[in-house]
Amino acid sequence: MAFVAPTAEQLGLYLGLETIDGERADLLIQQAVALALSVVKPLPDEATAVVLSVAGRAYVNPQQVSYETIGPMSVQRPQGSGGLYLTKADKAALKSLAGRGGAFTVDPTPDTADPSPTWPVDGTFGPGLEYEPGWGWV
To answer: In terms of C-beta density within 10 A (0-12 exposed, 13-18 middle, 19 or more buried), how is residue 91 classed?
Structure first.
């Protein structure tokens, strides 16, 4: 089953909003999917959670305001504020959902491997001769 991007309605439900600007939500979801694809291709089905998180973060706080005082009006924004971004946790989650990361083993031996020797047996060396410790096969 291929990844299906969440809808604007799902983003509204995720954020707990009764109404949502559908066009804006669709744009943010589309951009969040593009960001996620820069980390993992193809996106796993479970990547919906990360896409909703990224799009939701941008929907409710587009300027990334991190500090706000109502009177007499004070706002603090980080440098390069605004826009969509993937956190380190978002990237790790995408990789984990795609089955990347963690320990694994690769066995390069083909299933058809035969343990018998594949080289020509030399009658002047090895079994068939007598082995003398210190002297080898004689």
So the answer is: middle
